[in-house]
Predict the 3D structure of the following.
Amino acid sequence: MTSRQVVTIEAPAKINLGLEILGKRPDGFHEIRTVLVMLELADTLWVSSGGPPSGTELPDIPAETNLVTAALAAFRQAVPGSPELGWSIEKRIPVAAGLGGASSNAAAALLAANELVGNALPREAMFDLAGSLGSDITFFLGGPAALASGRGTELESLSPVDQPVTLLLPGSSIPAKTRTLYSMINPVDMTDGLRSGRSRRAVDDHSIPAMSDLTNAFSRPLSILVPGVLELQRALADSGVDRFGLSGAGPTHYVIGGDACDALSARAPEDRRFDMFEIIPTRTRLTPLIPHSSTERA
């Protein structure tokens, strides 16, 4: 009889409570500032040792760009002698929706792999490895709320946010979305970072940021590419929803807070403008990602 170690870990979605682009950095990346908050909506990832390397094919994601595979390969390179790793995933987070699903999956994979080798890779090395794979991945190693600056890898932990959230997801998709939207950013979309500073203070005071501070630099270019974005925003305002925003580079929008979510629930069934959107109720998450180990016998 053989056995293998299996680590189970939730990989949560996130939303951005406002997102500012301050300008272009000398290294070619954009300088951003945003408050990130994890959600209870989450994928479940299983990573195992003691068997042949394997993985799950994900719809619409080429194997060579699958961040779970990339994260596990990078981890094994960083930790010589670590075992072959297999993995599988149950997807619940919509793909390429601005909810950080791929980045969260990669962070969860790193945490699970490290758990399997007795946490051989120190915390600082884990953050460096995550940052080399993608800007958002480092956030998911900490959390559940943070102010992100620079490329998104400079993080300041914030108090957990405890609020209901409703997600609105359109059916349309954008090829090479993030790259395309960044290419459309111009000076009119750039701000000075003060809104994110106010959002940071609101979160640390256990409050929801003001509507004026939930603005997102990608809203204007996204409205050019995705029909219905401006109409959705008008529909939310008409419904009395006083706290909503765009998450990441979109196209998902969110409503946050009890009163705002109740206003949406009351109006959405009667307003045909919401018909083109999938509506997903969830909540903000209060805990970081935690791996759980077990032994399976075959």
